[in-house]
Each structure stands twice: as C-alpha cells, then as structure tokens.
Amino acid sequence: MAFRGQRNKNFREKRRIEDDSEQANSNNPVIQNFLIYRKELDNKHDRHEKLVKLSRDITIESKRIIFLLHNIDARKNNKESVLTEAKERLDKVIISNFAAIAKELVGHEIFQYMRAISPALQEFIEALTFYEFLSDKQCSDWNVIQERFKYKDDESESEISLHLAPAEYMLGFADNTGEIMRYCINSLGSGETDNCFKACKFLQDIYAHFLSIGSVPNHGRDFSQKIQTMKMSTLKAEHVCHQLKVRGTEGAKFPSLDIKLDVPDDLDEGFY
C-alpha cells in the first residue's frame, strides 16, 4: 500500500510540473510562434495527403480510359461506342475530380503541391490527347485545357481555376506517343494498315517538334527521358510501316516486331 501511495504521489508531482511548464510556455512568444508553425505544417501535410489521394483516383481513371481506347477494333465495329464512353468519362474527370483539387487549392500556392498532383495531370493529358487522336480531332493545346479547368465556387459564387503548368502538359503529351505507337502495332495486327501510316506520321511530326525544344525548367531530366522514349516509339512505328512497304499485306500476318532497334549515338539530335 505504501508503494502504491508513493507512486500516486510521484504521478501527481509529475503532472503538476507539466502543468506549470505548459503555463510558462503559453506565455512564451517563441513557443507561441512554434505552435502556430506546427499548426500550419500539419494543415499543409494533411492537404498534401488529400491531394495525393485525389490525384491517385484521377491517375487510375485515366489509365482505365486509355485501356478502353485500346479496345477499339474495326472487326468489332465498336469505335463510336468506345469513343462516346471515353468522352463521357473524360468530362466527368474534369467536372468532378479536378474540380475537387481546384477547390482544395483555393488560397494556396499550387507549386507547393505540384508533386502531389503532377501524376494526375500528366496521365489525364495523355488520355485526353490519345482520345482526340483516335477521334480525328486536333489535339487540345495548353490554352484549351486550361480554359476547361475553370470552375464556379458554390459558396462564394466566384470563379476558381486549377493552374495547368505548361511543363506538365508537355510531359503528358509526350507520354501519349507511347500509346500511339501501341495503336500503330495493334492496327497492324487487325489489318488496318492505313492507321499504321497515320500514326507513324503523327509520331514523326511530334518528335521533330519536341526536338526543337531546348529544355523544360525543373523537368530537364524527365524531359530528356521522355524524348528518348519518344524516339524509340517513333522508330518502332517506322519499322512497322517499313514492313508494310516491303512485304505488303503479308507484313500484317507475320510482323517481325521483336528485333532490336539499334540507335547510333551519333545521330544529329543535339543533346538527346
């Protein structure tokens, strides 16, 4: 019993010391400032995690839309139905998912959270431009997409917008070339040879334009890697078209796409 009484006494003494310490700290301006900073950092971390979750949902949905678009097959005569469904889902992502991100960033600097939403922006640009390519539409430029990222705040009834960094648009558009290369190869397998030449010409034009860009601020490494991937996608599409020119329609029956494409290091392509 004496031991238990001593333990309770020690606990009360420790609690009294902590209360006195908190009372002293509450009057300390330095401690007060640190408490304010702690609250701001906690809010920033919570907002960052929320944006990561919103970004993940957009990324997953964009990947699913791309997979849906690859299901277009002339033999199934399903192009119109697939494009209609893809457009509805893309519009929903803009109206709902990106609107949630825009509202979450009201009053905050977007570039502090760019790493959280960058995957969503790039994956969505990839899905949107791939859809427009398959729809025989002109791919939306930065201004068109930025205009679609404007929303009306229900509470303040003011207009809010989600800033689309030009670099994110360019990186997302660069990823689209990989999907077009796959579309080129799939078209070869389904016998739609005209689509192969169309895709190859598009890749060549995009690759030539991207080579004219010196660098992208803060994305130099990412940009150079995507340029290299774009080059390989273009070469694969050119190989498909070469097979068609040399072997005709027989190339669609027996495509030799498994060969290794040796790219010389001394190509006149500047840094890349």
Can you walk me through this structure?
The structure is a single chain. The chain is an all-alpha fold and 272 residues long. 72% of the residues lie in helices and 2% in strands. It has helices spanning 2-26, 29-69, 79-104, 114-134, 142-148, 166-190, 193-211, 220-247, 250-253; strands at residues 150-152, 159-161. The chain has a two-stranded antiparallel ribbon. Strand 1 (150-152) and strand 2 form a beta hairpin. Helix 2 packs parallel to helix 4, helix 4 runs parallel beside helix 6 (166-190) and helix 7 (193-211) runs antiparallel to helix 8. It is elongated, with a radius of gyration of 27 Å. The relative contact order is 0.08. The model is unreliable at 254-272 (pLDDT under 50).
